[in-house]
Write a structure and sequence with these properties.
The chain is mainly α. Among the domains are: 165 residues, no CATH class; 208 residues, no CATH class; 160 residues, Serine Threonine Protein Phosphatase 5, Tetratricopeptide repeat, CATH 1.25.40. The chain has 45 helices and no strands. Helix 17 runs antiparallel to helix 18 and helix 25 packs across helix 30. The longest helix has 24 residues. It is elongated.
Length: 814
Amino acid sequence: MPSSLAFVAKYIGQVHWDARPEELRALGARAAALLQQPEPGAEAADCLRRILLVVAATKRHRKLDDKFVDVLERALCLPKCPPQIQVLCAAILREMSPSDKLTLSCHEIQETKLLSTVGAILLAQGNKKAAALAVGQRVIKVLEGRLPEGQSSRHLLPLLSQVISVFPASLTEDQTNVVNKRMVDWLRYASVQQGVAQPSGGFFSTPRARQPGPVTEVDGSIATDFFTVLSLGQHYTEDQWLNMQAFSMLRKWLLCYGGEGASSPSSDDRSEVDGSVMSMVSATSTSSRLLPPKERLREKAFEYCQRLVEQSNRRALRKPDGDLQKACLIEAVTIMDIICRQDSSYVYRTLSCLKILHGRISRDLAYAWALLPIAQFFLNHSETAAVDSEAVYKHLFTRIPAQLFHSPMLAFEFIQFCRDNLRVFTENFSIFRQSFPNLFKFLAWNSPSLILEFMDLLPALLGPDTAIEMLHLLLDLPCLAAALDVQLRSASASASERAACDPAAKPASCLEAFRHPLYRSSFQYLLRTEAAPGDSPERLAPLRQLLGSVANSPRVVQCAETVPVLLQLFFNTASECADKPLINQLVLVLLERSDQLYELPAFKADVHRVLSSQLLLLCRLHPSLVVELSKELLEFSGTVGNIQNKEDVYTYVVWAIGEYMSVSYDKRCTVEQINRFFEALEAMLFEITQLRPAASGPPSSPRVIAVLMTALTKLASRSQDLIPRVSLFLSKMRAFVQHPATASVYSEQDSEEILTRATELTNLLKMPSVAQFVLTPTAEVAGAESQRDTHAALPAAMKMVSRFMERGAGFVPG
């Protein structure tokens, strides 16, 4: 077991014991005594480890004695303190942050490694702005001068990066010019010879007296240009390490300090380079040397990135080098984009370079990540250069999601790229909306991690031309996740497995079906890369049944759980922008798809709940749709199977019919329409309340019965010839609820609610004019919340009238 893990295993059980204040103080006193010895050793290190574990685990640093904290600070700054002790002291002081016990300062520190350690502790304090100013000034002061022998700037660059992250405005213009000059030297003038191996000590450790060889490219050839992070060697020199560090912080530096702003006219523009690299400086043009430091850094950074793009064209001999190649290419393109945004004169040079690069890597999926910064560059600058970049985006949106949907990190970066450029895409590029079926593959495969991102993306993808198809795809999202799983497994299947498929036989598995001619077109439609509004989603019905065998897959289940949230967002967005014809189409899809869902019981229940609530919303927004879709609603409401399979949706359809099939909402409503709906709903209520000897009980909930009774009463109040029929039906409800078959299924409370509703409706129908006013209020009255009974959508006024009637006549139907 490694020593660190052994230590944790040994002491983790003592955290609570050591966390007691008196024990912690005692441990601190013991460590303080050991640290004040001439050469603190293993025992001191062991004490410090225990204190670090306790402080990190319990945050009881306030229990540490002031004297112990002072000893830690002095030990940290002692030149001869063992490195292990210094690291532990620094770690404890960082864990104490923020703390008012610290007296550390970086003003007098000359040693770069100690400055890096102390600076990191100071930046962890509460007053980060003051700490960043102090640390930043000290770092710049050290960088300005020539470092003593044995000191290295390598320790300062990570600290400087941390300073500008904490407080970007911490450096003045003169201070940034110092760093600009240094970074030019580090990036452009590092040695191209490999470093010399450091002797490890011992009799046989003396290195051979020969010059180190040149660095190589990733393909093994000798580097013929300047050194970059992609130049390889067995050992690296100090300036080569600084080159790599400078590149790693270049993007952050340019974003903070590379923008517009005049350099100080009194500043010295000559780069301060060591004598060892002065011979290379002669190759630099005089015009470049006369540039202000910021512009000169911009120029050298651009050359560096161009060199990386060229190096990315070489074939790496080792996989780690190839991975580094891709990462550096992405960073290089991103930095070139930043430079072009800060100085448009670089745009034309960069465009020609990136066009060639895109043509080369677009066919290689291994470089898919690099296509995002390239596309970002074209988005930012193609208009400036008057370049048509449609082909770049078309390739990006059609190929990448279709083939790399299963890469979680790429999926996140891709969707984040879409979010960052949402306005540009929606306003200028039709390919963005047309590719929504492809983008949804990212969601189907990575749904839990991408749901928030798609909450931002979906409204932008939704339009009059995509709404219907998108609703179908949302309802089929679990089916899409299952199909993507089958597609991946099919791609990795062996040749013998693929050859085993018999086109004449019925496929025995999803994998066989994927390659079967009978299902090929259905899979192709579900896995399409662009919108296909002319195609019919009905073709997916057999596929939903086939893919039911993977319904319990965790990925499919997780995908299904995101659908209700996205459906809610879809309808909220559509209801704000859709016109009446589109709303009518959405309602028809809602009715059609309510019984054509992927076979997951919990998924179907959740979707039915959302569809029901959205049907209510759409009807309230456009009440006339009940008249306009009367044929479809009549067919839906007159089908018994809809009650059994999708009770929520059916209930709200019946409510909408009873509420809005009225001339108060649409002058086109006729008595004939009202009568047809009455007869259909009457037949349905009769069917579900019919007591047959062989029946085990009524199949429907009391809620459905209550809504049907109410809808029939509303319709009868608008066509008063129907009142005797509904009154007769309502009078039979007492016998229905008291029948043994009903009593065995419904609770006493359920039966009472049915009977109470029947009583209220019957009493109301005894005064037809009052019934019409109460059950069919004007639009203004109907809009008032006080007029709604949220359980069955019955106006509250009806109950008041009913109570008045009962007191007057004492009538109870029976």
